[in-house]
Design goal:
The protein has about 375 residues and is α+β, with helices and mostly antiparallel strands. About 35% of the residues lie in helices and about 20% in strands. Among the domains are: about 120 residues, Efflux pump adaptor protein, beta barrel domain (Elongation Factor Tu (Ef-tu), domain 3, Beta Barrel); about 120 residues. The relative contact order is 0.17.
C-alpha cells in the first residue's frame, strides 16, 4: 500500500481571488470647458467684494462724522408747571376738575365758600352809606356855621354901637362905670362868637373837602376802597385756570376741605409746549452753539425720533445751582467733569403724548455752523 502524501490544494483553489473590476474614472474637466458648478456665482461675488466695500464705506463715514456731533442720555422731558393756590382761605364747596383732565384758560377748578366774603361786601356797602350821610351832616353843619357867623357879626355891630353910646355918656357923666364896662365886655364876647363861628365853618369845609387825586371825600373814598377789596375777595372764591394744560396733584381738592390761602392745591402742566433739558459734559460744549440741529429719542417710545434745535445753553453747571454747592478748597480735591444744562426745543409736534420727566437721548450736530 502506497504511503499517503500530504494533500495538496487543487489548482483552482490555489489560484488567488480576482479583485472586482473598478469603474473607469472619467478624465477631469476644466472650468474652461464650461462646468457651471465650478464657476463662482454672482451672489458669491457680491458677498466677497460688496460686503467688505460696504463695511469700509460705513467705517469711513463713521470715522469722518464721529467728531461732528455730541450726544448724551442724561436728558429729560420738561414742561411748564403752574402751582395753583387759593388767594383766600375757606371751606371748599365745589371741585370741578380731576387728576389728568385737560383744562382751558379761565376754566373753573374749584370753589370756596363765598358767604363770609359776601357779608364783607354788604358791610363795606353800609360803610359807604354811613360816610355819605356823614358828608351830608358836615354840609349842613357848614351851612349852619355860615348863619352863626352872620348872627355873630350882627351881635358885634350892636354891641359896638352900645359901647360907643356908653362911652359918650361916660364922658359926660351920665352913666355908671359898671354900665360902661358891661358894654365893652359885650363887644368882646360878640367878637369871640364870630371867631368861634368862623372856626366851626372852616372845620366843616375841611371835612367836606375832596381828595386832590380822586375828587371824592376821603371818608367816602375809603369806604369804596373797602367795598372793592371785599368784592375782589368774593371773586377769588372761584379759582380758575390761568392757562391751558393738564391737571396734576389734585389730591387736596376735596369738598369740605379747609383751604389755606397761599397753599398750593393743584398743578397745571403745559403739555402743549414741551422741551428737553439735556445735561451735557463740559467737554462737549467746545463746538456747541445756539441754533444747531438736534435729534431726540425717548426711552418710553422706541422708534420715535423728533427733530429739534439748541435753544439755550445754561449759564451755570448743575452743581452751581444745587442746595449745597461743592466746596473744592480742601486738600483731597478730585476733579469731576461737570454737567451743563442745555435746553432743546422741538421743531415738530411729537407723534406721541409727552410726559414731564421722561428719559431721552439727545444728539446735537455740532458740525452745523
Amino acid at each position: 500500500m502506497d504511503q499517503l502524501s500530504p494533500s495538496r490544494p487543487k489548482a483552482e483553489d490555489a489560484a488567488p481571488a480576482r479583485a472586482p473590476k473598478a469603474d473607469p474614472v472619467p478624465p477631469p474637466v476644466s472650468a474652461a470647458e464650461g462646468d457651471p458648478q465650478a464657476r463662482p456665482s454672482w451672489r458669491t461675488r457680491i458677498l466677497m467684494f460688496g460686503l467688505p466695500a460696504v463695511l469700509i464705506a460705513v467705517g469711513g463715514w463713521y470715522w469722518l462724522t464721529s467728531g461732528g456731533s455730541v450726544s448724551t442720555d442724561n436728558a429729560y422731558v420738561q414742561m411748564d408747571k403752574v402751582s395753583i393756590a387759593a388767594e383766600v382761605g375757606g371751606r371748599i364747596t365745589e371741585v370741578a376738575v380731576k387728576d389728568g383732565q385737560m383744562v382751558n384758560a379761565g376754566q373753573l377748578l374749584f370753589r370756596i365758600d363765598g358767604e363770609p366774603y359776601a357779608l364783607n361786601v354788604a358791610q363795606a356797602t353800609a360803610a359807604i352809606d354811613a360816610a355819605q350821610v356823614e358828608v351830608g351832616n358836615l354840609s349842613a353843619s357848614a351851612n349852619t356855621s355860615a348863619v352863626d357867623i352872620a348872627a355873630a357879626r350882627e351881635d358885634v355891630a350892636f354891641a359896638q354901637v352900645n359901647f360907643e353910646r356908653q362911652a359918650a355918656l361916660m364922658e359926660k357923666g351920665f352913666t355908671t362905670k359898671a354900665a360902661y364896662d358891661a358894654s365893652r365886655h359885650a363887644v368882646t364876647q360878640a367878637r369871640e362868637r364870630v371867631r368861634q363861628a368862623e372856626a366851626a365853618a372852616a372845620e366843616a369845609r375841611t371835612k367836606l373837602a375832596a381828595g386832590p387825586s380822586s375828587g371824592v371825600n376821603p371818608q367816602v373814598e375809603a369806604a369804596k376802597v373797602q367795598r372793592a377789596q371785599a368784592q375782589v375777595n368774593l371773586g377769588r372764591t372761584e379759582v380758575r385756570a390761568p392757562s391751558a394744560g393738564r391737571i396734576a396733584q389734585s389730591d387736596r381738592l376735596l369738598i369740605g376741605q379747609m383751604m389755606v390761602a397761599g397753599l398750593p392745591a393743584v398743578t397745571i402742566v403745559d403739555t402743549q409746549h414741551p422741551w428737553v433739558e439735556a445735561n451735557f459734559k463740559e467737554t462737549d460744549l467746545a463746538n456747541m452753539r445756539v441754533g444747531q440741529r438736534a435729534e431726540i429719542s425717548f426711552d418710553a417710545y422706541p422708534g420715535v425720533r423728533i427733530r429739534g434745535h439748541v435753544l439755550t445753553i445754561g449759564a451755570g453747571t448743575g452743581s452751581e445751582f444745587s442746595v449745597l454747592p461743592a466746596q473744592n478748597a480742601t486738600g483731597n480735591w478730585v476733579k469731576v467733569t461737570q454737567r451743563v444744562p442745555v435746553r432743546i426745543a422741538f421743531d415738530e409736534k411729537p407723534s406721541r403724548d409727552m410726559i414731564a420727566g421722561l428719559s431721552a437721548d439727545v444728539r446735537v450736530f455740532t458740525s452745523d455752523k
